[in-house]
Amino acid sequence: MKVRDSGMPDETQWESFFNPELIVEKLFGKVILGNAAEFGCGYGTFTGAIARRTKGLIYAFDIEESMVERTNKRLKELKNLEVLRRDLEREGTGLPGAFVEAVALFNILHGQDPLRLLKEAFRIMSPGAKVAAIHWNYDPLTPRGPSLFIRPKPQDIQKWMLEAGFKISGSVLDLPPYHYGIKGIKPLI
Ligand SMILES: C[S@@+](CC[C@H](N)C(=O)[O-])C[C@H]1O[C@@H](n2cnc3c(N)ncnc32)[C@H](O)[C@@H]1O
Predict the structure, then answer these.
(1) Could you tell me the residue range of the domain that residue 54 belongs to?
(2) What is the pTM of this model?
């Protein structure tokens, strides 16, 4: 099922809200040693920045065929990218367990079942791998973002990450102008 309130404005407007290279670097560092996954890639706003840091393959998923096509089209030169249409809430990723070193959940944890997405991320991650979520600030003045009734606060995402089995890494990151980020790690044991 499509995550509630996850429609997008046009691409140019959406991409005016972020500096993807800076955000991805703050969350995952300069290099991801191994495979990566992105849950709900949308227009592919962050996919290139993740893929270019990823030594292995990156699997980008979206429920919308139009988003899969757009991401594929803009990043066709990347040889380490697979963009797949998939309902992550219903079907999960289909990837094997302990397969990736990084998972990005950007602007998607306001859905019906955020814990389910985080548990699927946990399943496919190797011990020591990094998970990162970003979301709109909990502020009625942001120019977009889901309704405040369903918009997660940083402490909600931290709580869900802990429930899914992750350790929280560092404090809440400010990602101006409108976002924050949370990092977690899959424990080694
Ligand atoms: C608000 S957009 C964020 C896109 C991207 N992560 C970003 O921050 O630019 C959420 C995306 O998740 C996708 N999505 C919603 N429900 C989904 C589901 N059940 N499985 C996979 N993708 C889903 C939507 O189609 C949309 O492209």
Answers:
(1) 11-185
(2) 0.97
